[in-house]
Design goal:
- The protein has about 210 residues and is α+β, with helices and mostly antiparallel strands.
- It has three helices and eleven strands; from the N terminus they run E-E-E-E-E-E-H-E-E-E-H-E-E-H.
- About 20% of the residues lie in helices and about 35% in strands.
- The strands form two sheets. Strands 1-5-6-4-3-2 form a six-stranded mixed beta sheet, with no helix packed on it.
- The longest helix has 18 residues.
- The chain is globular and about 60 Å long.
- The N and C termini lie far apart (about 55 Å).
Length: about 210
C-alpha cells in the first residue's frame, strides 16, 4: 500500500501521481485527492494502482450519481464536479487542436446534454447457475453488473430493464442470448437480440408476445 497525492488527470480521466520517480495512474480519483492505493501493475516507468482509501477528498470531487459507479465499466468521471468535468473535456479538445496546429481560440463552450440523454445501450446477458444477470461489464473484467439504474440512459430504456430481465428468466435457455441492444426512438424502443444459436419457435413466440406487450 502506498500514499499518493493526485496532481493532475490523464487523457483517459485517470488521476496521476508520482511514486519513487514513476508515474502512477489511479482511476476514479481527482486532482487534490490524497489516497492510499494498492499497486496492481508496474513496469519500468509506469505504475497502475487501485484506490483503497480516500484519505482526504479533493474539492473537485462529488458523490457519483449512480450506485454502480466504480464497479461498472460504463462511466469513468461521475465523481468529478460539473465544472471540473467541463474544464477537463474542453482542455482535451484544446490540446488536441494545438497538437494538430489548429488555432484553438475559436473553441466554443462545451454543451452539456444532462442526465437521461443516452439513447442507445448494449446490455450483456450472463447466466450463472440459473441466475440471470443483465447489464454492463464490470471495469476491466468480463463480469456482468446486474444493472439496477443508469442515470445517463434515457428513462424508457432504464424502465424496461426489469421487464427484460423477467423475460429472460421466463424462457428456456436464456444463455443463448448474448446481448440485447436497445435504442430509444421517437416511436418507441427498438430492441435487437444477439444470439449464440437459432431461437426456437417457443422462444420466438415468447419474444413476439413481449414485443406486443
Amino acid at each position: 500500500m502506498v500514499y499518493l497525492n493526485i496532481t493532475h488527470l490523464g487523457g483517459m480521466g485517470d488521476g496521476i501521481a508520482l511514486h519513487q520517480g514513476k508515474t502512477v495512474f489511479v482511476s476514479h480519483t481527482c486532482v487534490g485527492d490524497e489516497i492510499h492505493a494498492l499497486i496492481e501493475q508496474e513496469s519500468k516507468d509506469i505504475i497502475r494502482a487501485r484506490m483503497v482509501e480516500l484519505v482526504k477528498p479533493s474539492p473537485q470531487r462529488q458523490t457519483p450519481l449512480c450506485q454502480h459507479f466504480g464497479i461498472c465499466g460504463g462511466c469513468a468521471l461521475q465523481h468529478l464536479t460539473p465544472d471540473t468535468y467541463h474544464i477537463f473535456k474542453t482542455d482535451l479538445v484544446r490540446h488536441m487542436l494545438t497538437d494538430m496546429g489548429v488555432e484553438s481560440g475559436a473553441l466554443q463552450e462545451m454543451v452539456s446534454v444532462g442526465r437521461e440523454s443516452r439513447r442507445r445501450a448494449e446490455f450483456t446477458v450472463a447466466v450463472n447457475k440459473g441466475t440471470v444477470s443483465l447489464g454492463f461489464l464490470a471495469e476491466k473484467t468480463h463480469q456482468v453488473i446486474d444493472l439496477k439504474e443508469c442515470p445517463v440512459m434515457a428513462s424508457p430504456i432504464t424502465e424496461l430493464l426489469p421487464a427484460l430481465k423477467s423475460q429472460l428468466e421466463g424462457i428456456k435457455k436464456p444463455s443463448i442470448i448474448m446481448a440485447i441492444h436497445v435504442t430509444a426512438l421517437e416511436g418507441g424502443l427498438d430492441i435487437l437480440l444477439t444470439v449464440r444459436t437459432p431461437v426456437q419457435h417457443e422462444a420466438r413466440q415468447a419474444w413476439a408476445s413481449f414485443a406486443a406487450d
